[in-house]
Amino acid sequence: MSSDPGPAALMPTAIRQDGPRHLAITWADGHESRYEVRTLRLACGCASCVDEWSGEERLDPDAVPQDVHPVKIEPVGRYAIQIDWSDGHTTGIYPFRRLREIG
Ligand SMILES: [Zn+2]
Asked: Would you tell me which CATH number, out of the four given (3.50.50.60, 3.30.2020.30, 3.40.50.620, 3.40.50.300), belongs to the domain 7-102?
C-alpha cells in the first residue's frame, strides 16, 4: 500500500506536550500528529485495558478522569513510548505504528 509509511517514517523526531490537553508528535517524514491526551489514555492497549486473548476492552471509560494526563513519557527501545498517567496507570506502551495510525 503506497500510503503506508515506511519504517523510517515511524520514528518520532519530537514528542511534546501541546498545552495541558494535547500531545504532539513530529515524525521523521515531517508528518505531525496531535492527540487529545484522554483519548490516548482510552486507547491504551495493555493487558489490563484490553483482554489479551479476546481483544475485548476491559477499560471503563467512565473510570478515567476527564483531566487525566501524562506525568512521564519514556522511550521504549526504538519502537514505542511508555506513558505514566496521572490516574496511576503505568503499564501503557504505545508503539509508534499504532500512534501513527490513530494520529
Ligand atoms: Zn492500559
From this structure: 3.30.2020.30
